[in-house]
Amino acid sequence: MSRSSKYPEQFRQDAVALARSSTRPLAQVARELGVNHETLRNWVRNAERGESAPSSETTVGEQERELRELRKRVAELELEKEILRKAAAYFAKEMGR
Question: Model confidence over 9-43: pLDDT tens digits?
């Protein structure tokens, strides 16, 4: 999809999110955004296709790197949680004096 669009990528993503979350008809959402309803329909379809098929641009190395980063972040959050748990127990004991 090297074809350029007159709409920025972020606008298209936001429009798709709005169309998916809205109870209004797609044509009405498109009209409110000032885009053709078929254009919005295509954006939604493309987003659905992109979600169902794994990206060929994502390599195994990138996935492994992301997994390492996520595991590191989980470890940091678990440590923070433990520190906060201990602090809460300490202050609860102090308040009981």
Answer: 999 999 999 999 989 999 999 999 999 999 999 99
Q: SS3 helix, strand, coil % of the chain, rounded to 5? A: 75, 0, 25
pTM for the whole structure: 0.49
Spatial distance between the Cα atoms of 46 and 49, rounded to a whole number of angstroms: 5
Q: Are 69 and 63 in contact (CB under 8 A)?
A: no
Q: Let me know the angle formed at the C-alpha of 10 by 52 and 2, rounded to the nearest 5 degrees.
A: 70
CA torsion through residues 7, 11, 16, 19, sign: negative
